[in-house]
Amino acid sequence: xxxxxxxxxxxxxxxxxxxxxxxxxxxxxxxxxxxxxxxxxxxxxxxxxxxxxxxxxxxxxxxxxxxxxxxxxxxxxxxxxxxxxxxxxxxxxxxxxxxxxxxxxxxxxxxxxxxxxxxxxxxxxxxxxxxxxxxxxxxxxxxxxxxxxxxxxxxxxxxxxxxxxxxxxxxxxxxxxxxxxxxx
Length: 184
Prior knowledge:
The chain is mainly alpha-helical and 184 residues long. Helices cover 49% and strands 0% of the residues. It has seven helices and no strands. The protein has helices spanning 2-11, 44-55, 73-76, 84-97, 113-125, 130-144, 161-182. It is elongated and about 80 Å long. The protein starts with a helix and ends with a helix. 14% of the residues are buried.
């Protein structure tokens, strides 16, 4: 059976559609039919792919990022957290890299990349999956941006220029509120 499948894939007689997800999407290449979210999009291969594309190729082998290296795509574009689209993009790139396709095309029949990308993105954007997706994205943020806190509140040093600007802004807001309250 496996031989015929392999032969069909190699000859091009058998095409894997984009909505048929490869096992490498799952942590440890383990799919749990009872809990299909378990390990989904948490594989070591995807982590390496994400780091290679968005951080730096050298970051794949490093446990800690070397601050002296040139900034990667994430830093250049101010990316501080993993997005649904970036995660699906990486999965699509890894899937393509593992295929026998020799060039990238949205409409190719070998990888069906467009349908693969859209099927994954549709699942992540489905509001009924939001709890799973938020948990997944937080997990990714800890893996890729461990020192970044995109939701952190910046508290300026007392007496700093930023502190003074924020004080003036607050005073102006209070003055406007007082004018509106007094009917002026």
